[in-house]
Every structure is written in C-alpha cells, then in structure tokens.
Amino acid sequence: MQPSLPATELSDKRLINSRYQLHELVGTGGMGAVYRATDRLNGDIVALKQIQLPPGGASRSDESFRLSLAHEFQTLAGLRHPHIISVLDYGFDAGATPFFTMRFLPAAQNILQKSSQLPFGQQVAYIQQLLQALNYLHRRGILHRDLKPDNVLISGDDLYVLDFGLALNEQVQQYVTGGTPLYMAPELLAGDMYSPAADLYAVGVIFYQQLTGRHPFAPFDFRFVDRVFNDEPDWRDVDPRVQPVLARLLSKSPTNRYGRPADVMQALARLLGQSAQPENEAIRESYLQAATFVGRQPELARLSAALAEAVAGQGSAWLIGGESGVGKSRLIRELRTKALVAGCVVLEGQAVKGAARPYSLWDEPLRHLILSTPAIDDLMAGVLLSLIPDIGELIDRPVQPAPPVNDVSGQKRLLTSISALFQQQERPVLLILEDLQWVDESLEPLAYLQQLLPQQRLMIIGSYRDDEQPDLPAQLSAWHHLPLPRLSNTEMVLLTQSVLGPSGRRADILTLLQKESEGNTFFALEVMRALAEEAGQLARIGQIALPATIFTGGMRQILARRLSRLPDHYQPLLQLAAVAGRQIDPRLLSALQPEIPLADWLAAGHEAAVLVVDRNEWQFAHDKLREAVLREMSAPVRRQLHEAVAEGMMTL
Which residues are catalytic? Predict the structure, then answer.
C-alpha cells in the first residue's frame, strides 16, 4: 500500500481485538487512518483501516448505524476481482471503533506516479483495468465515492483499486463523508447526491492527468470551483483518439456522461481499434451468491433476543435444523453480523464427515480463542498443544507437552482446559458450529460448556441436517431447538426479486421456481443460474421462453456442470480440498500440491462459482458441491486422499 504520508511508528504498539498488532501509520484520509499490521492468527502482514466518524455524526453507540456498517463490510468482504484490494476481515474494536483489513502492498505507486511517463498504450491499459474494477463494483450497487490517484495503486504490472464502497445505503450516507475536491464532479460540489456518474467523472480527471501531467481545471485556487463549473479542459496535449471519451467523462452534467464503466471500456476499444472485453461471469455469480436475506424473521428475532441475553450474562445454546440448502448458514450469518455489532468475539467451526482427526471441529474456534485469552499458563498450553500444534506461536512462547496421565484423566483435563478458555473471556462470545450431524467425540466439550451458560456471556449456535441426523436434538436435549422450514411462496417472491429485479415478479418465472425448488433456497438459486446461462444474463431471463423443466437429469447433473467449469488441471486439488472439508485450508493444500499455484486455483474456483470467500476465509460455495466431488471418487482414491490429508495436517 502506498503511504500518503511518511510512515509513523506507534509508540504503544496497539493490539486490535487481540489479533491485529499495529506497527506504523502509513496513511490517512477517506474517513480514517491506515496502519501496517500483523495478523497474529496467521502471521500475514495486512493494512488495517480504522473508520473515524465525523464530528456530529453517528455515535459509536448508535447500534442501527453500526449494524448498517457491518452489513456493508460483510458485502465488501465477499468481493473478489483481480483489480480490487479485497476486504479480508472486519469488526469493531474494544472501543466500538469500526475497522477492516486489506491486503498490504509494500512497494506500490499510485497510478500517476507509475504511468505518467509510460507509453500511451500502457496508460490506456491501466485506465481499462480501473474501469473493469469500477464496473465490477457498480454492478453490485457499490460506488467508490473517493476515487483519486492515491486510491488507485500499481504493484508490478497490476492495478488495484482500494478504499471503496462505504455509504452503500442511506443509513450510512447520513454520517459518512467522502470525496476529494480535486476529483469531485460539479454536481457534488453543488451539494447533490453521489451517483455512478460521479465515479466516472473522477476516472476522467485521473485519465486527463495521466495523459497531460496536469489537472484539467488546475490550479487548485480560489477560482478552482468556478472553472469546474464553467471552463472546458485544454485538449492540446490529449491524444485525439481518446478526446471524445474524455470529453464525455468530464461533462458538467451527469446525464451527459456514460451510463456504465462498461460503456467507457467499449468506447475506448472502438476508438483504438481494439476488441472489447466480454462481461465476466463472476458478475452474474455475485448476485446469486449474495442474494438478499429474506424471510426467517421469527427465527432471527428469537436468536437476536437470545444474543442480547447472552451479552447481558445469561447464555444459551441453540440447535438449528433443516435440510441441506434450506438456508441455515444464511440465517447464522445474519446473527453473526449482529454479534459483531454487539461487541462479541465470534468463533466458527465446521464438522467434516469422516474427519481425519478427533476434535477437528474445534481447531479454528480454539485458535481464535487462544488469541483473546488474557493468560494461558504452561499446563493449559501444554494440554491444548495436542489440538493446536502452533499454540506456541499464538501465545509467543515455547510450549512443552503436559505431563502424561491416563486416558480418562487426560480427556477430562483437555475438556476442562477448553472450558477454562471460555471462562477467561473478557468479551461476550458467539460460538458457531455447523454440520453437527457429522460429529462424534467433538460434542463432548459442549457438555462442559453447557454447564457455564447460566452465568456466562456465551451463546452457542449449532446447525445440522435434520434429514441425516434426526435424533441430534435428543442428544442435545438442553439446547433450544429451532427447525428451519423451506421458504414460503411470499418469501420466494422476495428472493427472486432480489436476484432478477422486476422480472422476478413474473408469474411464470415464480411458478417454475416453485415447482423446481419447492422452497429450497439452494435449488431456487440453481434454477436462476441455469436460466441465466440460457439467457446470457440474469437481466434477460424475462425475455426468453421458459422451459417446462430445468433439472432434466436431476440435481446431480446440475452440480456436475458447475464443477466442470473448473479447468481439468485444477480438479486434483479440488478433490483434496473436498476430502479436507468445506472450509479451505490454504496451508494444507499448498503443502500437499505445491506445484499448483494456490492463488490461481482459488481465483479459478471463485470464477466457476465453486468456491466463495468471506473475511479471507475460503470454502465450497455449498456443501452439495463438495459432496458431488466426493461422490465421483472411487473408494480407494477417497481413502488415499484421506490419508494424505491426515498426514499433511500432522506436519503443519
């Protein structure tokens, strides 16, 4: 990340949420300060931005504002594009200050520093990359709002856009300021609302500066605003081939500018005799993968009330049951956002069918928990070493195995240590454990935690497939049981509209969706995906003749078609990932298949809608996709891969 001011060492070496160690200040502006930081969970260097609310704006205790902001971070964390610096993680620190982390670019230059002396063709290529990133954001309803050279960085030969997207909705727009006067469109200087056209105006200013070495309305003096409103740029140093594009980008009226970044890309390609780049399939997938949360209001209300009680000191445990694809994870994700806003530590684990190691469900929850535990003595650290081999790195001191005891005493000592970690937490905790239909001995710590709930600021959420393990509620009889039915007809209408827009209200489309999905969210989205592939775009579904049925050949064929989008040379790594579990462990996969570039594999999986990412944590887009990969393997191959995964886990 290119600093906008000299790096300043921090005297107090602050720690954010026990996880991010701040090193030095590397930039300010755009509503906050940016620091170079170390993620203690994995050792990565990241850029951490703390959001500073303007005076007279929202209070840090304004829960509705913080909830809106958390939802924006949640949206941004799911974005992946080759020319966007992605949000990796987000949350609120102990003082309720919002923050998010991004990839750190240590030697980047801004677009003007890098490209002002480059050949014309390379300058245009960088502008095309900027437009591709902006098109990706705009298609998702995200405006940049502060596009300027310092937010367009070049590292190597690649351009990256950062610091985008705050104030996606009116709730946040009331309090968020944005924009730099040199790059603000005339209508913004006049006090009008921000629009996509304002982002394109900023692109025009940057493009003009890149080509001429000066601002189109320089100098920045008392007449600057008057020139923005009334003067025309000096075109003498602008290549005449692109002057028409620049003139339209810098139009005084937003209605005279291009409607979309894609239109600018096409115009540049046409004027320069180049072929326009086709629309990326990832755009379609973003609407499908980030469909609006609909329905489930009674269930969310009950869980939200229980969360409030847990924060106040009265914990509880909840078991959410439903068939695969009905929306359990989506409901839990909404509760997770509320928990972050409430200042909770959020821990997440997922059970894996045929897990290679006992207690693997607890790997990630315990690693996060260890970071936020004030004091872990040598005995507890030695006991936990058997589950968390890198505990020494997490607590920053050598750890020796605990003195040996018999099996029964050792098991009790382990469970007591896990329980003690939760008891030592200074903040309330939300523990999320998914796919509990596949656990065995991993349930044992829950019995210990159950005893803490009446006096502990702890809420436990478990999910399971009730068609695969119908007796699980009886095993966890002290938990509250929350069955999740399929979507109602009304809820299906809301889901369809959120993805398809106005055509989602068409009776024939709704009838087909109901018939094919019967209210299962996963099936409904697969129907829309199949229709979009036929129509070419989601927006054109309403223009095609609808088939009598979508799933000729059944869901298995639909899943196989999606998996086949991943190139053949990436399929072996996909098989290893499927055996390891729904969550993707980059370290494990890199160790097992070092010859395959993991970043390229992840990008290809995301492009094929087989993998998704949130807070820099990758997983299969749905467990049905993972199961489809496993189903196609022979028993010997599956067994061989299980052994390889188990050995790999032991060596990490």
Answer: 146
